[in-house]
Specification:
There is one protein chain. The chain contains no helices and 11 strands. With 116 residues, the protein is mostly beta strands. Strands 2, 4, 5, 6, 9, 10 and 11 form a 7-stranded mixed beta sheet that branches. A 4-stranded antiparallel beta sheet has the order 1-3-8-7, with no helix packed on it. The chain is globular, with a radius of gyration of 13 Å. The N and C termini lie far apart (34 Å). The mean pLDDT is 94.
């Protein structure tokens, strides 16, 4: 099970840190990622981190967001800085054995609202 938290309302230019706590099993060998879905839009990839700590970011968040994980706490984070109104979305965390996001686990989502 994945539990996302940390969403909220923030002004443009502000920061938030999302957390994704895993329970029931370890995901240390999985690719962990964040996705988001804005109102009226499809879910889109935001960032991912592998078990070897390699990271990948969507161009729209590169340089502003940082993904990290703490295997000892079985928790993944997304530090979001310089937030923009277009970052407003429900953010979902996911864990997948291969990074194809087809056979993994999804959290319930946490809402991030960025006001202008």
């Amino acid at each position: 099970k994945l539990q996302a938290s940390g969403g909220g309302l923030v002004q443009a230019g502000g920061s938030l840190r999302l957390s994704c706590a895993a329970s029931g099993r370890t995901f240390s060998t999985y690719v962990m990622g964040w996705f988001r879905q804005a109102p009226g839009k499809e879910r889109e990839f935001v960032a991912a981190i592998t078990s070897g700590s390699s990271t990948l970011y969507a161009d729209s968040v590169k340089g502003r967001f940082t993904i990290s994980s703490d295997n000892a706490k079985n928790t993944m984070y997304l530090q979001m800085n310089s937030l923009k109104p277009e970052d407003t979305a429900v953010y979902y965390c996911a864990a997948d054995p291969t990074g194809t996001w087809m056979d993994g686990y999804w959290g319930q989502g946490t809402l991030v609202t960025v006001s202008s």
